[in-house]
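Predict the 3D structure for this chain.
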Amino acid sequence: MSLGSNPTAGQIMSQVELVFLGSGDAFGSGGRLQTCILLRGGGTQVLLDCGASSLIAMKRSGVQAGDIGTVLLTHLHGDHFGGLPFLILDAQFSRREQPLLVAGPPGVEARIDASMENLFPNSSRTQRRFALEFVELFDGKRSEMGRVRVTPFAVEHFSGAPSYALRVEYGDKIVVYSGDTEWTENLIRAAAGSDLFICEAYYFEKKIRYHLDYRMLRKNLGHISSKRIILTHMSDDILKRAAEVGLEMAHDGMIVTVS
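Done. Predicted structure below.
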């Protein structure tokens, strides 16, 4: 597996933008929407996670859901994938024709189908005008989906299926997202040589199982070789202490040029 950032043949050399459509935790701390991060400018538009409020976030930001070609999921918790039933139904009612690819941990298709049936019975079996494809991601295995390449790294977060940090090669850039996790050395491996590392900082210094706090991240910054780090998925605890945080903090609607 190569961790280099040199573009390969066929990759698009253009400005890559990242939009934090939703930067919040599961409980809307700070009035923020749930996790939903858009990558654009390097080919097909890509979502990193799709929390339950994602369709609202897209429409609020003027993002056309029909332009999104790929959704990459770090793990199968509702604040990270719960927006997909709504995204899929919106695509159906808006007469989408462009294929939609959803990639996530093993069992992703069954979990999304079950969620759709719980929310809107028979919706997962309704005939669609567009192709909906599911791809399962496996720890350490690099997958290519057109011009998007993703390598999952196992992290420490229980969700009834493997949970990952995702290393995404998009255009000529490398963007890494931690997902939800307590500290693990795999974050160092995932972020190595990346252009941007988006990292959870759920609490300022409180230790809680399966989540990362700012103090622990700060302690390990010397081992993380990314050009830029932005914090996300923050609780009220760390938001109230923002003045003490020495790293960039995401907010809903924040647009970042990845360079």
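The chain is about 20% helix and 25% strand.
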